[in-house]
Fold:
Amino acid sequence: MCPDLFANFGGHAQACGFTFKHKKDIDLFCKRMNDHADAMLAEHELIPHLAIDAELSLADIGFDIAYEIKKCAPYGIGNPHPLFCTRNLEIMSLQTMGSDLQHLKMTLSDGVHTHQAIGFRFGQWAESIALHEHIDIAYEININEWNGHTTLQLRLVDIKNTDV
Structure:
């Protein structure tokens, strides 16, 4: 599609690399790629989706399941980290963290159980959600070892306002 624009190119199945012959070819490359995408992709293929492995209640989440999940590592392209969801959780605490407030930390409750959740690069959500609102979350279950303490941590992958 574009080899005429490249001085060299190559890569493997999960990567590609190329060097343009001329800097001016970047705009032409972008146009060709956008035209190709328009021809090949239907609009419904551009809607993001998540493959949830299981829906859990907060009562289901404990160190036992976290250690079982850890046994399946390493995770990567051929072995993705299991993804879970839990619905209708109340936000009990909410704070942004990091030097640019780019991360989000929450305490979530189902009315009986509570868990900590962290969303790396989720800081913008702090403007869209508030204490005591209800949300659905997609997450990975992780064991967090920091400063001599071991805790369970739900690493957020997505947040959705609960449809009540």
Summary: DSSP finds two helices and eight strands in the chain. Helices lie at 25-40, 63-71.
